[in-house]
Amino acid sequence: MALKSVHITNYYHKASGGISTAYNKLLEAAARHRRFVRLIVPGERSTVEDVNDFARIYYVKANYSPVFDKRYRLMLPWKTYLFDQSPIKLILRDEEPDIIEIGEKYTLSLMAGLLRRRIMNVSQKRPMLVHISCERMDDNISSFISDASIGKWFSRRFMGNYNLPMFDFHLTNSKYTGQELIDSVSSEKNPHRSERFLNFCWRFLRAPQVSLSERIFVNQCGVDHEMFSPGRRRSEMRSRLIKDHGISGSAKILLYAGRISPEKNVSLLPKLMQKLILDRNADYQLLVAGSGPQAESLASEAEKLAPGKIKLLGQITCRESLADLFANCDLFVHPNPREPFGITPLEAMASGLPVVVPNSGGVLSYASCENAWIADPTAAAFAHAVTQVFSDDENRAMRITNGFDTAAKYSWEASTDGVFALYDKMYAEFIGHRDLYDYQKPLRRTDFVRRFTTC
Length: 455
Description:
alpha/beta
């Protein structure tokens, strides 16, 4: 019998980016795999949406986030799952899932501890508890609060002593994201000490080693190749783009698409264009597709540093219009050095665009000097990379081809198939040693091995 999984997250709304795309693709794949998938997310009011015969979205009434990106709503513990008649608890009791996956570290992860300790009972047998990491906590703290060392210290302790032991398994979208979990349990002085001590303890207790060596898994995202394609590049669309935004016909059109938010390092963009203005050999224009809490400050900074060179298009909700935009620009810039994975650079590669990305973060899961232009996340380095893209036609064509071939290896079908395969693998291990996993308290920090497996 197919497993039923319930996925709970605050990182979802109709106009949001990569995380919502990944959940939507998983809901679509539920019908292909004929297995039941439920998504619980915040909404303006409580309602239910049947996506297909196997997939359903529960919207739980929640208020907008008071901090960070105020377009998002937050399901808070005391309103949604702490008490007996709380909406999330009622949904879980009605659905009786085999797997509960929580995609958030802050207000929702406590639920796993309550389920493990039987404080929050939703079924006769406890479901398998999975946490999915789509971003790093240390990156969030450095972007929104402070880049001081105390933030990194707090993130490490939080992840290692609270988040990591709370769940049976962890799923991440890249090795870069997963590395935060690994680092949270390793010793700075002796990174192998935790693993050696752990293996000794469990050999002494005759516990199965496999259950401890495979707790953290990586499953990467994909690209909609039917949507994002070089075939969308047409002269009439290009002409309309130039006319609509008052761009010179000879200009090199750069594109950024994504959230306009501190963690995306969008403050680099006006500084980049300020540098490119100095290039007398070409006229560069930047289009910014997206919205977020820094939209106004970005517009102000753009007008100050590069007047008339940056056009903010706002949120483009139509995926076809966005794909047309990708295919009819000349270059894609992605300034975020802490990107967990980076779906939009892959979409740009699939659209036949040259891509400039930072030399760090999850984008390096697929980006290299063979298929992209890698640069330090500074205005000077990015400007140099942009000019290099257009200085050598043969090299540009080669890297574009390599980028297209790279993107072809990442499909949403393969990504969602991988998720379901991992669920099955995790659940077989969970059921095979339920007594080991079904503690009445969260596992200790030392109950985890530093190794994680890529699927």
